[in-house]
## 1
Amino acid sequence: MSWRGFSLLLLLTPLAEAAELRVIVRPLWRGEPLVMHDTRLVNAAGTRLSITRLSLLLSHAELQEPGGRWIGAKDWAEHLDAGKGRLEFRLNGVPPGSYTGFRFDLGLDEATDQRPVAQWPAGHPLNPEVNGMHWSWRGGFVFCALEGRYVLPNGELGGYSYHLAGQSCQGTVVVAVNLDLSQDATLVLNLHAERFFEAVHTIHIAEADSTHSADEDPLAGRLADNAVHLFGVEKVTREPPPAPVLNEGAELPDWFAAKIPAHFPKVRLPADNPPTLAGVALGRTLFHDTRLSVNNSQSCASCHSAAHALSDPRRFSIGAEGRTGQRQAMPLFNLAWKPAFFWDGRALSLREQVLMPIQDPDEMHETLPNAIGKIRDLAPDFEAAFGTPEISADRIAKALEQHLLSLFSGDSAMDRTVTDDKTLCEIEQRGFTLFFTESDPARGIRGADCFHCHGGAFFTNHQFLNNGLDADAALTDEGRAKVTGKAADRGKFMVPSLRNVALTAPYMHDGRFTTLEEVIEHYDHGVKPSATLDPNLAKHLRHGGLGLTVDEKAALVAFLKTLTDESFAMLDRSAR
Ligand code: HEC
Ligand code: HEC
């Protein structure tokens, strides 16, 4: 990190003398720690509400010298997310001295905002997989996302989603500080969340429950005015900051990097299982080996079939011994970016995930020692992959992990509009626009609002959300709450990627819809209210749903079909 205005001084001062400022952000509501999902907050307009998402992108941090001059770190950007507990950042290499002011921008300058997302390193605050704030296919970032539920006058729960993007809503946060940076220090900032609704303008949620900043919506301007007043200084301490934990991930070999579509965000792989050609090949062999099942009748590929982008066309898969599972089998591609696996995210790594189906009584139902005993003839392949012929559960898991990590899909008609300047046909283009536009009946704007959850390069935000399949009382699968035990996670499932969706029917965690048309009907008017329904869908309920026309529904389906990557399905079939 280099500091403007201090290049000369830095040349003369050894770097070790530079100070580090750690900044810790504490989200509050009227002075008390903000509890996410708690519907007992009351804003200045008297509305009862909750906050389910509070996420910000910051840039251009600067410190003010006593003489008044501001000095800053070039190219500095950070991401805060109250829901994920990402509430801390650092300024490194600060010239030692005392400072009287601290400021930063909410939002990004245009050049940074518009850079191709593939340029941000894995783990960088502006990598879309880190911040989840790059929803639209080609535009820039959303830099402020505030979402939640609120109580309607009739007592029901509505939803609001406030998003700021672009440069016209950007603002600068300035706080007075008394910082002695002759050595490292920690600055604790309070984030007064209630000020979103009242700092300058009073926001009445029931009158405007979503922003449309692309159209220079007045609500977006009022929220932006409020947002620059969110922060205040709590205290400065000398407590030494613990060293940041850096995980650079495995260095990607060239042959592996070449498989990754160039327009995808950068990826970080597990550092202790670097992919090798022999390892990936062994993983592929194991994926198709029926000896991993109790009666040698079933391989992974039995439920993850190539023609269906490695998903299962059956509503519920049938295991080696004829038992039926409870959930629909998921397609397998672009897994290297996923933060957790299965519909409820109960496996945190692929390595951990792959041993589960082998032992699951509803699936392959084999013990690991038996499976190892049966595949002794693969010892030379294990030697090629791992250096010695030993076969172990850990090596089976790592080889399968390498294979799964190497499955990339990014060559659909939609991708070719970016990579080859191809265009979509008229109806597909209309579906694209609907997909990426918010519905705003009050202003006559037609939109299907899919992009908040299915946006970005993967057509998913990789979050656990409730898309309104069941009302609270009708919930039969707790979803994410099974893993976390939290009521706020009831009925939430990982948002699936919509890539190859035309090949992956039936749909949803329980395969309840057989066609894309049925899925669109669900989002149009079938969304069920519940305590954990996502605000981005809840906000349509009081307007009676999306109210799409027959033509608009057909356009959305046509667009979803442009996400099919024929080469992915074919590639895997030919390599069997
Ligand atoms: C009997 C059918 C069946 C077999 C056999 C099977 N799977 Fe699956 N797979 C499923 C189902 C169903 C799910 C979703 C389960 C859930 O979410 O609870 C799934 C989910 C997954 C996922 C999670 C994907 C994601 O996006 O989170 C991975 C990875 C996976 N399977 C890999 C494998 C591997 C590797 C094997 C072989 C060792 C295998 N599966 C064998 C049915 C099967
Ligand atoms: C609030 C977030 C959210 C919004 C908005 C949203 N979805 Fe979804 N979508 C989800 C979640 C979560 C699931 C999985 C739910 C489950 O299985 O329980 C899903 C599942 C799907 C599936 C099934 C995919 C599969 O492989 O089973 C399709 C297709 C889909 N959505 C399309 C759309 C379309 C089209 C729109 C816009 C009309 C849309 N979604 C809007 C969150 C959302």
Note: The two ends are 48 Å apart (CA to CA).
## 2
Amino acid sequence: MKKQHILSVLVLLSALLITASSIDLSNLYNYGAQGKPGYINKDNTPVTNSITDARATLGRVLFYDKKLSANNSIACASCHNQAFAFSDTAVRSVGLNGGLTGRHSMRLVNARYGTSPSFFWDERAPTLEHQVTEPIQDHVEMGFSGLSGQAGIDSLIRKMATLSYYPQLFQFAFGSPEITEAKMQQAMAQFVRSIQSFDSKFDIGRAQVPGQGMPFPNFTANENAGKQIFMHAQGMGTPGCQSCHRMPEFDIDPLSLNNGVITKAGDQTGFDLTNTRAPSLRNLFNPSGSLNGPLMHNGAFTTIEQVIEHYNAIPQNPANTNLDPRLNGPGGNLQLTALQKTQLADFLRTLTGVDVFTNPKWSNPFDASGNITILGLNSSIYQNKAEKFAIFPNPASQFIYLKLPQGQYNVHMYGINGQLIYSGTAEASERIDLPGFAAGFITITAVNQTTGWMYQAKFIKQ
Ligand code: HEC
Ligand code: HEC
């Protein structure tokens, strides 16, 4: 087959996979045990939040759910698109009601594999767990800020409880159906950390040699020369680009200051000096060879050649009070020849993989109308045992009794619109009073505290 034909078959295949709009809880994707190459050592996963398949699956649903925005129009994925390494081709992304973000969206690939625990261009989020619910609470991005007339995240949580799939998914992932911000943070951080890419030409070469400084057998002469420039660029002091974008993770040095790119996104007159972080330099390009969106916090560069020119002659602006000293003075001029510039660009192109752009485990689980199907609820972890759960009396007015197998249960009741109206614990056959509930259908769930099995039933409140 011609290369072009293979490409179009690949594109078609991935389009088919990516439209699969369901989650199968009895057959989860592997997020927790993906493994990594032996030469990858940096990892910012906190001991309290290592990845499980169940929680990362919940994180995937949250990441793609437009209902997490105030008007059901924006999801994380609106600005972090799998086809572009989870970044955006626009300089500034469109959020709620057409509002624009203050900076360029960041690629989210290999966010896990770095030493710095902090996130965002200016590192203002101390951990990924803190970061992931900030866009939801940003008035421009997803709009649950709790400020200037906008509802807060508690209101989002009440909204989520009315969607049939969330109590089930939280039950599945965390063993109890309550939705909390902390659980959302854990699940979304796990999904983001699961997004990884180690099938690049760089990785294939690195696996064949004992040290990363040695020529890679699968590289062209130019790519190997470019790797040397990256590691030892003259004039930037050794080790060159490597001193801030550290191979083989290509994560940012947590001590880096800014790199001389100082204007604001969308405003050439204003300064933005606090940008001291870059996402991993892996997957700057997508497999078709084009950049995954413009580069830097302000999206100022649309080609890799412009980036190299920038580092070849760093603008020395007295207004820049936060320039990294490694880029200051004579060292700020790399004095690369035209050939060396090409070699450096060739090397940066070897950092692109394929899998992360097409693997369905990181794709949208919703269909075009925003619906999702949850399959496999009868797996051993989540059991819907409605047939063994009875409520007496039914209809009920003042109180109910739960008829369940012996045991202690976490009990939740949901009103006609799915809103949580009661939560508590009870033993089987215990009486529960129903003070002041509105008349109508009530859905009740009881989770056995020992087995984790969930029983669900409905009754009528008179
Ligand atoms: C409206 C567009 C938009 C939406 C929606 C959005 N993001 Fe972002 N994201 C951005 C921009 C822009 C940045 C960089 C902002 C900055 O540094 O000031 C960013 C940065 C990030 C980073 C930091 C990456 C790094 O390496 O430091 C993470 C992680 C992230 N977003 C995850 C999410 C998650 C999870 C959601 C959904 C809850 C989300 N984003 C929703 C635009 C968006
Ligand atoms: C002193 C530390 C430092 C050195 C040395 C350095 N960089 Fe950077 N780099 C940064 C910082 C900080 C950013 C983010 C700046 C911003 O967006 O304002 C960045 C951003 C980038 C980006 C854009 C990333 C993105 O996601 O948009 C590329 C590409 C890049 N650097 C390549 C290089 C190359 C190639 C070299 C060597 C010629 C190099 N860097 C040397 C600190 C450094």
Note: The two ends are 69 Å apart (CA to CA).
